[in-house]
Amino acid sequence: MTASPTRRPAAGRSRSAVAAAAAVAASLLLLSACGDQTDAAIAKREAAKNRDPNAPLFKLLPKDVQDKAMIQVGSDISYKPVEFRTNGKVTGIDPDLADALGKVLGVKLNFNNATFDTLMGGMKSKRYDIAMSAMTDTKDRQQGVDSTTGKKVSDGVDFIDYLDVGVSIYTQKGKTQGIDGWEALCGKKIAVQRGTVSHDLAKEQTKKCEESGAEAISIEAFDNDTEAQTRLRTAGVDAVSSDYPVAAWAVKSSGGGNDFQMVGGAPVKAAPYGIAVPKDKRQLRDALKAAMEAIVKNGSYGQVLKKWNVTDAAVKEVKLNGGS
């Protein structure tokens, strides 16, 4: 029988379809071999590798955390030396402490980057289980109160206190303009990270300036401390305030130590950093507190603080909600 002309193209299309299918299958096999390389997938694989039911405190964790072997941590990863990136890897005081906590808990603490002032909302919306981001333990945060308006904005959090730090001021090197403390900032410009204790102190001080008849402080608030440093480096402001470990790092490292200088003497308003845990996650909170106590006892806590030159900030006792 003579082949129908209409069948030859159909046969051709069939061969093309087979070839295309083979190509797709090969691609899928290649992808399967390489694995999903998204951050979430990588973190999940790391969690599976780190899951250790025999870890000393694994049984203290909630069942859902045991199963997923991961605690999602919200953090502003731009705050050297507390948390920052080096060649894409999250490093610093908090990530190193988190690794030590993970070892005694038998799970991975996975850091997720966000701006500092969104961390509370991120926990409320369940994007993060906890926040670990040089966050000062305050009564307002414990109670979910906005420190500026005094209004309740969330259910609040519990804090596991793990470092005692204060707030410092620094200026351009050799250009202090007479700034030797907070009282000398009246009429000056200061850069801070939005939502931090430094931001609160600057707002408190500018009220004092005005009440005394002096000129108000011009406050510029940024999403992260790096932006505040850049503003000072380019002489857009007269000073920057940040937590002492961050200020000390900036003064030592920026421009090889030639950009900034510390002013104002000893850090003020010393207060504890705390791991923030939503109040409805009491079992997770208690497991993390036990883990922090364990790494203090086994020495890994001290090793981390020594590595980052912040041993003076060590807590004598791991407290719950010790801030004021």
UniProtKB/TrEMBL annotation:
InterPro entries from the UniProt entry: Solute-binding_3/MltF_N
Record-linked SUPFAM superfamilies: Periplasmic binding protein-like II (SSF53850)
Pfam families: SBP_bac_3 (PF00497)
Signal sequence, start to end: 1-35
Record keywords: Signal
Domain Solute-binding protein family 3/N-terminal: 70-312
Protein's UniProt name: Glutamine-binding periplasmic protein
Encoding gene (name): glnH4
